[in-house]
Amino acid sequence: MARTPRDRAPRTTSAAPASAGRRTGNRRRYSQNFLTDPAVARAVVRASGVGPADTVWEVGAGEGMITRHLLPACAHLTAYEIDPRLAATLRRRFGGRVRVVRADFRTAHPPSAPFHVVGNIPYAITAAIVDWCLAAPSLRSATLVTQLEYARKRTGGFGRWSRLTVLHWPRFDWRMGPRIHRDRFTPVPRVDSAVLLLRRRDRPLLPREALGEYRRLVETGFTGVGGSLRASLRTAAPVRRVDAALAWAGVPRGALVAEVSPDQWVRLFAHLHRLEPGTG
Asked: Where is the composition biased (Low complexity) (predicted)?
């Protein structure tokens, strides 16, 4: 069982400083901040919603704080850990109950069967992990501990929406889960964290054959031409059609692109292409 810093017994042997130095060096090398609070780990697992029939891949398993709570919650658990020392620790701790893979998660090939991703991921590779999840055809959900600012940015927490969220909204629901204070990690990071929840929709909000055209419209809108979304879209469609679609979607004519919610984007696209939203 992993222990918090205050629970660790003091080390009195001469080897302690060198051992501590190696752990610190590994953490810095792999950009790791380990969860130390079992209650937070349990909250992450609850937020994931994984069940007894599910296959789960854990990214950045570290010392196994989340792993030990995931194990009884799912049917099959694979733990990815790039640090060889930590991977060995996981194997000793969980034996054959967890498949431990010592590798960079970003190089993994997703399984063909449905699966879920859960993990306390290194801040430095958050974008790459999210991109990997979005590209995995069989992924059902991803529950990721990220920097608080990143989770807010991807879920409209600042009253503004990111291009990435809008692009994938017809297929994925994005939500922010529990906030996690920075003192629940070691080493203590400079910022708080939060749980980012990605859920693949059972049915896309738009017909599958329209998703490519939707992405092209979003890319056009985010070019920033003319300042407002209306000005950008006028380069791709007649102004009357653009104005009618904006009105239908409830978007003010002067709205900046980041102020337009993903649901408004879906309605906007559907009106421009005379589609019924939610018919995927």
From this structure: 11-23
- Binding residue positions: 33, 35, 60, 81, 104, 120
193: its two tokens = 């964290």
Instruction: Give Cα separations from 59 to 71, 117, 144, 197 (angstroms).
Output: 14, 7, 9, 14
> What's residue 17's pLDDT?
35
- Residue ranges for the known binding site for S-adenosyl-L-methionine are 33, 35, 60, 81, 104, 120
For the stretch 61-86, pLDDT in tens is 999 999 999 999 999 999 999 999 99
When pLDDT is averaged across residues 213-232 and rounded to a whole number, the result is 91
In the chain, domain spans: 17-200, 208-272
Q: How far apart are CA 9 and CA 21, in angstroms?
A: 17
In this predicted structure, the answer to whether residue 197 has a pLDDT above a threshold of 80 is yes
Beta strands, E only, 67-125: 76-80, 99-101, 115-120
**Average pLDDT in the 157-186 region?**
97
Domain at 208-272, CATH class: mainly alpha
What's the pTM? 0.87
CATH architecture of 17-200: 3-Layer(aba) Sandwich (3.40)
Q: What one-character-per-residue DSSP string does 2-37 give? A: ---TTTSPPP-STTHHHHHHHHHHHHHHTT--EE--
Distance CA 170, CA 265 (A): 9
Mean pLDDT, the chain, rounded, equals 89
CB 97 within 8 A of CB 74: no
